[in-house]
Design brief:
By secondary structure, the chain is α/β, with parallel strands linked by helices. It contains 10 helices and 8 strands. The chain has helices at 16-30, 47-53, 81-85, 97-100, 106-118, 140-149, 179-197, 199-202, 218-224, 239-250, and strands at 3-8, 36-41, 60-64, 89-94, 122-127, 161-165, 207-210, 229-232. An 8-stranded parallel β-barrel has the order 1-2-3-4-5-6-7-8, surrounded by 6 helices. Helix 9 links the parallel strand 7 and strand 8. Helix 6 crosses helix 7. The longest helix is centred in the C-terminal third of the chain and has 19 residues, at 179-197. The relative contact order is 0.15. It binds 2-phosphoglycolic acid. 2-phosphoglycolic acid binds next to strand 8.
Length: 252
């Protein structure tokens, strides 16, 4: 499985020129690293211009930060999976903690996952605990986010599932979780998936890590964290840092 690194720009940059410049520089910088899959997740508004800049390739993809679960209709402010697909989006982030903090429930996350899979796209389900809990090896909140998120979704569709473990306390904190703790958490997530879905499916679900990943910690996190890639926020807004990160990751 190729490692996957997703640049989650969140609500940045503010202008179209800056978005174009950043995408261009990232694209040019990472295209030579063939053993790695890179995806850009800009805000919706910048997707068309990035799509037109350079149509996505099999190794450099466009990702959306969210999508609505209805197909079309009177839903002011929402974006459908088919609209995203028409701009080359292949992958959609669902249930990021910043959206859950705005009121997105497990039920909504579940509906969105179903919509993404129905559209034949890949979904990145984000899970993570608010605080580091010492006595609880596998936090109930993570188990619930996985169980409720995947409720009543046909197993055959889960070939398009990716999970991102993102401890909320490590997001934007400037300090990532310790590689050995990430390793243990990914093992527990994998074990839970095996129990729910069977080994065949569970072993194929990529598990990413997100939370203060940058060009300095990416090697240690890949070598000792047992993950298949990263969801990167802050460091993806600096093309030099991001390209360096991809380069470091491709050398492992
Ligand atoms: P960060 O964000 O890299 O800035 O910590 C990660 C994320 O929220 O996906």
């Amino acid at each position: 499985m190729k490692k996957l690194i997703i640049a989650n720009w969140k609500m940045n940059p503010q202008g179209s020129q800056d978005a174009r410049r950043l995408a261009n520089k990232i694209w040019r910088g990472v295209q030579k690293f063939r053993n790695i899959e890179v995806a850009l997740a800009p805000p919706f508004i910048h997707l068309p211009l990035i799509f037109n800049l350079k149509p996505p390739t099999s190794d450099i993809k466009l990702c959306a930060q969210d999508a609505f679960y209805e197909k079309s209709g009177a839903y002011t402010g929402e974006i459908s999976t088919s609209q995203l697909k028409s701009y080359g989006v292949k992958l959609i982030i669902v249930g990021h903690s910043e959206r859950r903090a705005l009121g997105e429930t497990d039920d909504i996350v579940n509906k969105k996952l179903k919509a993404v899979f129905a559209g034949g796209m890949r979904a990145l389900l984000c899970v993570g605990e608010k605080e580091k809990i010492k006595d609880e090896a596998f936090p109930t909140v993570i188990r619930d986010e996985i169980h409720f998120g995947l409720k009543k979704i046909k197993k055959s569709l889960l070939k398009n599932l990716i999970i991102a473990y993102e401890p909320i306390w490590a997001i934007g904190a400037g300090k990532a979780d310790a590689p050995k703790d990430i390793y243990e958490m990914t093992l527990m997530i994998r074990r839970e998936l095996c129990r729910m879905l069977g080994r065949n499916i569970a072993l194929r679900v990529p598990i990413l890590y997100g939370g203060s990943v940058d060009e300095r910690n990416v090697v240690a996190l890949l070598k000792h964290g047992g993950v298949d890639g990263f969801l990167v926020g802050g460091a993806s807004l600096n093309h030099k840092k991001f390209v360096k990160m991809v380069k470091e990751a491709s050398s492992i």
